[in-house]
Amino acid sequence: xxxxxxxxxxxxxxxxxxxxxxxxxxxxxxxxxxxxxxxxxxxxxxxxxxxxxxxxxxxxxxxxxxxxxxxxxxxxxxxxxxxxxxxxxxxxxxxxxxxxxxxxxxxxxxxxxxxxxxxxxxxxxxxxxxxxxxxxxxxxxxxxxxxxxxxxxxxxxxxxxxxxxxxxxxxxxxxxxxxxxxxxxxxxxxxxxxxxxxxxxxxxxxxxxxxxxxxxxxxxxxxxxxxxxxxxxxxxxxxxxxxxxxxxxxxxxxxxxxxxxxxxxxxxxxxxxxxxxxxxxxxxxxxxxxxxxxxxxxxxxxxxxxxxxxxxxxxxxxxxxxxxxxxxxxxxxxxxxxxxxxxx
Length: 344
What we know:
By secondary structure, this protein is mainly β. 3% of the residues lie in helices and 41% in strands.
């Protein structure tokens, strides 16, 4: 592990920098070469087999670095869409999947040099003020390479059963849960089912291969039948808020989940939580830190017990020892709202 921290921001006010910030041990934040100040970085994905390689998805294309994020090259991915998620096949790092806005998936078999568009059910469920829905995260089934999962902001849960070539919405369980009084929520429409469909992330683990963990505005949910049923893990039993933006599996313990909880997409509080039993119980992972805005995302190291999280207003919290000690580094004042982070 090199101890390099990356954080992605978007242009959310005049003159803000919506790009990538890079922090080396003992250094200061830098904007690396090859990324414009207005690309808006939405996803950072390290290559699990090449420690120097990392991809970023932006609103203006897909980029790759082969030097720990110091410099970047734009890949010839399809134009006219935004890139909100990047997934690398753990069995073949040349095989890439990217989630886009408008909702869709594109894939490459040669490390991003050529691309094909997957067949994706991308009808808009709601008319949102921010425009088209976004495929926020993608995940592989741990043991069946034909099955992949996706989540879309205000479009719910997606499943592919043919290796990512086609995707279908799998919202049977979400439709039922959205009718429960305590899971009704609306912010941007007049439809109070909105909250359950506001998907933000999905993850899987070899400790429970058929389970997929879906996180949304209303909390953390588990499905073991590709969205036909879902179980509410009721995170508010353990945390003061349940708006959930990201979820990931520990790189050193497949039974441990991390998730970031906040009040809402724009708020003055947030915290990172850890579950040692795949969501049955949760404890605060970073009790010594105080987030002053919503925690929008985090990244775990591909092999080591290291993690970096970022709040909307640019607080970056990171640990290299599985949470025994945390450090904080504030992004520069000209940074736009932060959305994602990674540790290399």
